[in-house]
Amino acid sequence: MCQLYLILKADPNFANAFAAVFSAATAFLALCISVITICIQRHHNVISIRPVPEVTVADYENSLRIKLRNNGIGPMIIRQVIVRRGNEFKESVIDWMPALPKNRLWNHFSTKLQNRTLQTDGVIPLLELTEAVGEQGFSIIRDNIRHHLCNLTVDIVYTDMYGTKFKIYKKELTWFGRNINELEPG
């Protein structure tokens, strides 16, 4: 180290060149560290605001519900909803449902969810049918709807705000079929 000092002291041009090279190397190293830090931060941002879809089902004596929920930390951009039975596909659950009796309406349903954004803890009702006070014959309607729902699968194709592609979320609606054999004559 002492010899380097003596060389730098003896030749000012060499000292200037050495200082310039050292300064350039330091600047390049700082640039590399900055790029690595930006990449790490971006990766952290992507994984820390990840959406987590969940299709929830409720099957009660007086109500049937299917909802899409975002349990993640960031917004979910719905690219496509596919509701399938075997090899047949439709865009929504309601598209698979039979017609309701005259003067009977669905409480809630959703269609065409493509490119819709679902915020954190947000919910979109895909289908809901709830018995009205004093309604006659609801159990027959409910059981018919259960029969149609139990063979369906809901697939959610989604991204986050960065356009990250995730594995397709799939939810089979077999839960609605758990009482069908008890209801049908054997």
Give a structural overview.
The chain has 186 residues and is α+β, with helices and mostly antiparallel strands. It has two domains: 2-48; 53-183, Immunoglobulin-like (Sandwich), CATH 2.60.40. The protein contains four helices and nine strands; from the N terminus they run ααβββββββαββα. The protein has helices spanning 2-10, 12-48, 138-149, 180-183; strands at 53-59, 63-70, 76-85, 88-90, 108-109, 116-118, 123-130, 153-159, 169-172. The strands form two sheets. Strands 3, 4, 6, 8 and 9 form a five-stranded antiparallel β-sheet that branches. Strands 1-2-7-5 form a four-stranded antiparallel β-sheet, with no helix packed on it. A hairpin with a 2-residue loop joins β3 (76-85) and β4. The longest helix is centred in the N-terminal third of the chain and has 37 residues, at 12-48. The model has no long low-confidence stretch (mean pLDDT 90).
* Helix share, percent: 25-40%
The largest sheet is:
5 strands, antiparallel
Name of the CATH architecture of the largest domain: Sandwich
What is the radius of gyration? 30 Å
Q: Tell me the count of domains.
A: 2
Kindly state the number of beta strands: 9
Principal-axes geometry comes out as rod-shaped
- Uncertain residue segments: none
User: Which CATH C-level class of the largest domain is it?
Assistant: Mainly Beta
CATH topology of the largest domain: the name is: Immunoglobulin-like
